[in-house]
Amino acid sequence: ARPVVVHDEL
Amino acid sequence: MNIFRLTGDLAHLLAIIILLLKIWKTRSCAGISGKSQILFAIVYTTRYLDLVTTYVSAYNTLMKIFFLASSYATLYLIYIKFKATYDHNHDTFRIEFLILPAFILALLINHAFTFLEVLWTFSIYLESVAILPQLFMVSKTGEAESITSHYLFALGSYRALYILNWIYRYATEVHYDLIAIVAGIVQTVLYCDFFYLY
């Protein structure tokens, strides 16, 4: 599966 | 969230407010590089596209909206409202030489080859060099007004504090993002010679 990167920084 | 990232975001917020107030109060953008502000608007626009797809927290959403709105408001003040005071002759950095390499690098080195992720990576690379036109302009004019120096000091501190945040997160959450860290170090190093003068 495509790695879903969640960016939690501004 | 940790104290380093919070103070980093507040330093970033402060820098943006200092700049907006300076231009608004003095009704002049002399000494300010419009090109750097264009780069910052591109950085926030390409990085915060996930505003519509991912909800992290109210704080995250609010800050993203503020950064987007303030960057376009700054562009409006520089290129429209106080256009007459914009110093074309000293703001001559060729920003296409920053935008293109950052975009190509984002296509080559990223976490995932998806539209949002490549644009996010592009914004990270671009942000690390976005201040160059401003530093170039300060070096050409030979001096920076004290308020511009405060702006640059706050802006430089923000990413330096983020480096501490990344160390903290690596130590506590074993979370790290190498792309953001490397670009953040480059960004902070670029300010160092300015900090030295400061």
Summarize the structure.
The complex is a heterodimer of chains A (10) and B (198). With 10 residues, chain A is low in regular secondary structure. Helix content of chain A is 0%, strand content 0%.
Q: How is this structure best described in words?
A:
The complex is a heterodimer of chains A (10) and B (198). Chain A is low in regular secondary structure and 10 residues long. Chain A contains no helices and no strands. Chain B is mainly α. Chain B has eight helices and no strands. The interface between A and B is medium-sized, with 9 and 21 residues.
Topology, element by element:
The complex is a heterodimer of chains A (10) and B (198).
Chain A: no helix or strand
Chain B: H1 3-26, H2 34-47, H3 58-81, H4 96-108, H5 115-129, H6 132-141, H7 146-172, H8 178-197
Helix pairs in contact in B: 1-3, 1-7, 2-3, 2-5, 4-5, 5-8, 7-8
Keywords:
heterodimer, A: 10 residues, little secondary structure, B: 198 residues, mainly alpha, 8 helices, 74% helix, 0% strand
Helix/strand-derived category of chain A reads little secondary structure
User: Total number of helical segments of chain B?
Assistant: 8
Q: Helical percent range of chain B?
A: over 70%
Radius of gyration of chain A: 9 Å
Helix content of chain A: under 10%
Please give the number of β-strands of chain A: 0
> What is the rounded Rg of chain B?
16 Å
- The overall average pLDDT of chain A, rounded, is 75
User: Which oligomeric state applies?
Assistant: heterodimer
Name the beta content range of chain B.
Answer: under 5%
What is the structural class of chain B? mainly alpha
Report the major sheet of chain B.
none
Unreliably modeled segments of chain A:
none
> In this structure, how is the largest beta sheet of chain A organized?
none
**End-to-end distance of chain B, in Å?**
30 Å
| Overall strand count of chain B | 0
